[in-house]
């Protein structure tokens, strides 16, 4: 509901609220011109913009992008998950899997990953966990028995917080450790044994209540941190003597907007947050680019995992022998067109990068 107040001669009068039809027109006018020309495979998205120059001439711009799959605004959570479901369940086969949600603040990343309170709008995390439990149950007939555990971490200003901890965020210094077998651990964090998919929903609610939120111009209740939900799965087959270990990392990245859009310039805390976010997102881009060069056979390329806590935490799930997918969320508003273009260009770089061939983490009986 939009209300406008004008003041004349010391008295104020309220203008009538717009009719529903007018409100719909205002909403439509505020939207960016985004079209989806590929009606068969849903792989293309086109953004258009028109502006007037100082001389009064109209200038029109058009940008077209192609991805593995483009979801239109009326797409459901179920349709999005269908696209990643096979990838998510491959952790039961001993793969390390990483799914990112990337985009500016307020574009819907957290809704995509965590979802809402109903079954129909459940996000990628609860759906992925349900899928893994369902598949592991089906594999019992083939001799496989699985143990699962979960952790949920936040990276805020290059500091790791445990979202499943007790009370206020503790002052412990959480350290990231990688062992030779490819397992990543973080010191002094709560790792919860998972026995059912429903259990994960209550963990999500706990984590959300603890997650660092702050007010920005982009979104009044905006998450200013990356969150990383990790499902680790250990499988043993009594019939064959095989064992496997996989992990599924579901990552809700902090908003990718530039400083002037975030409203951070006049606030030291917000400035530090935004600079830290942008540094870690840049480090993520650098790691993906370096992996791409290595994948093209350009020598023993150094991969700068240590340039941020995010990339170092996810080192074993970003390396060439893992499976990685990025979900890009876009704002539909014309006001956010430049941010959307920045996000689309970043996603295009990621999409054009081949990081290697995924390998199972599986042991055969000796």
TrEMBL record:
CDD domains cross-referenced by the UniProt entry: KISc_C_terminal
A biological-process GO annotation: microtubule-based movement
Annotated TM spans: none
Residues that bind ATP: 103-110
Disordered: region residues: 1-34
Gene3D superfamilies linked to this entry: Kinesin motor domain
Low complexity compositional bias, start-end: 1-14
UniProt-listed InterPro entries: Kinesin-like_fam, Kinesin_motor_CS, Kinesin_motor_dom, Kinesin_motor_dom_sf, P-loop_NTPase
Biased composition (Basic and acidic residues): 24-34
Protein name, as recorded: Kinesin-like protein
Start and end residues of each Kinesin motor domain: 1-353
GO CC annotations on file: microtubule
Keyword ATP-binding: yes
Taxonomy, superkingdom: Eukaryota
Lineage: Eukaryota, Fungi, Dikarya, Basidiomycota, Agaricomycotina
Signal peptide: none
Similarity annotation: Belongs to the TRAFAC class myosin-kinesin ATPase superfamily. Kinesin family. KIN-14 subfamily.
SUPFAM superfamilies in the cross-refs: P-loop containing nucleoside triphosphate hydrolases
A GO term, aspect molecular function: microtubule motor activity
Matches recorded under Pfam families: Kinesin
UniProt keyword list: ATP-binding, Microtubule, Motor protein, Nucleotide-binding
